[in-house]
Amino acid sequence: MALAAKRLKVLDLSQSYSLEELPSEVGKLEELKEINLAKRLKVLDLSQCYSLEELPSEVGKLEELKEINLGCTCITTIPMSIDSLRKLEKLIGVNCSSLREITHSVGNLSSLQHLNLEGCWSMSELPSSIGNLSSSLQHLNLEGCWSLKEVPSSIGNLFSLQHLNLAGCESLRELPNLTGNLSFLQYLNLLCCKSLRELPSSIGNLSSLQHLNLEGCKLLRKLPTSIGNFSSLQHLNLVGCKSLRELSSSIGNLSSLQHLNLVSCESLRELPNSTGNLSSLQYLNLAGELPSSIGNLSSLQHLGLVGCESLRELPSSIGNLSSFPNLILQGLSLRELPSLSGNFASLKYLNLRNCRSLRKISSSIGYFSSLQRLDLEDCVSLERLPSSIGNLSSLKYLNLKNCQSMEKIPSSIGNLSSLQHLGLVDCESLRELPSSIGNLSSLPRLDLEGLSLRELPSLSGNYASLKYLNLRNCRSLRKISSSIGNFSSLHRLDLEGCVSLEGLPSSIGNLYSLLYLNLRECWLLREIPRSIGNLSTLQHKELWNYISYSAIEQLPNGIGKLKNLRRLILGFCHSPKRKIPSEIGDLSSLEILEITHAPIHNLPKSIRNLSSLKHLKLWSCNKLQLLLELPSSLTHLTMSCHSPRLP
User: Fold this and answer.
1) Tell me, what's the pLDDT at 6?
2) What is the domain extent for residue 640?
3) Closest to 119 measured CA to CA, from 104, 99, 139, 102
4) How many CB atoms lie within 10 A of CB 605?
5) Higher-scoring residue by pLDDT: 522, 211
6) Residue 228 falls within a domain, yes or no?
7) Helix (H, G, I), strand (E, B) or coil at 164
8) Is residue 251 part of a domain?
9) Alpha helices in 417-576 (DSSP H)
10) Domain tally for the chain?
11) Is residue 190 included in any domain, yes or no?
């Protein structure tokens, strides 16, 4: 049945004796205010009937009903007659923002399994009769019920309850005494219960509890010792419990615990030694000091110490963690990564980002035979790497970005045969690279941006995999070795901002795979070798010079051979020597041509031959007097010339 009358206000189906389910379109009747229904109806879905303010008391006569969905309606209460719906299994009132109370007769719904009142933020209390649903209710969702100040103690009678969600109940100050009757409860969510100050000791009676979420309970000061009774608990989340000062030693009894998250527990200074008894713990994320017993966590796979600014050293027992793959020490105040003499054969990821006091890394790092990622970004005090780093035969990713004090890279780095990413961006104290870097045959990308290199050394190794070489803003770089011509797979060469670069080697013409060449702001570069015409694959080229004494005086005649070039950006100084060669008309694939500050009176006639040209941009070409015939393919012409009239 299609209900097209969206402005319908009254729907009477009381005589439809065989009707068991309403069509989904009923939910689109935004102005519906009155409804009479068939007695055999099993599913009543009125969600998003925004104008519906009440259910008729006759709803109690729909004895076959199994599900009622009132989501996003304006009902203020649920009628008492609902108590006769003995077959009702689901009652959904999500985002009923006007709902202020639930009738006590809800306790008579003997088959009710799911009660979802999420987002009913006007509701301040639950009827105590909810405890009568002891044998049926399995899921109770009260998330976002901001005004709810207390939960009735009768909730402890719900021995079939498996899932209790109280997340976002910001006015809830305490939980009632929880008896041992909640023996099937597996999930308890108290996320952002910002007024909750303590948990009852009886919470330890929840023998089946697997997930306990206390994230954002910022007034919670301690956990009861009875928490150690949670023999089934697997996940404990205490993120952002800013007032939590201590953990009971009984936490060591949580034999099934796999995930423990203590990030942003600002008042928690240390963990009890009993933490080392958590034999099943796989994931530990925390703040504060580490107990010496940390080395006993034989199942640990992830250790995160993000932002533990007060942590200045690691216990030696951490070397006993032989099976975990991830160690996150980001933002610590460590001055030295200590000797980790234990068996770290399983460690794959070591994150030391933003350890700004770190000056030294122990040579024992060379024992991490499975390490694949080493992140040292923003370790601004780190001066050098140990030569043993060359033993990391599995290392694929090495990030040294912004290691401002790094003066030298050990020659052993050339032994990292698996390395695929080497980031040295903004290592401003690094003035030279070891020649052994040429042995990194698997490296597809090399980031040397912002280094103080004066010369790119001879890289005689096999660079068959290198596709991107980034030398941006190497402001001291004067010379590039002719060995760059050996990079047969290079796709991108970025030299922007190399303000001291005086020339390019002719071997650059051997980069037959090059697609992108950026020479912006290479102020001392006076000429480009003719061999650039050999770069038949080149698609994008940028030449950008502004200083009068430093610009490229003439483009090479071979530029016309760049048959695949799609974009060409030419920036000139105000010099009469500067001109655009007629060979530019041979660039048959050129789609975008941008010319800036060119002291020219007219464009070369050959420009009409650019059969693929779509965009022509002329910026500050103030002497331009004449525009000859332009190619018919042109769709966009942009001009910015300080002239009283258009050419």
Assistant:
1) 56
2) 566-647
3) 99
4) 11
5) 211
6) no
7) strand
8) no
9) none
10) 1
11) no
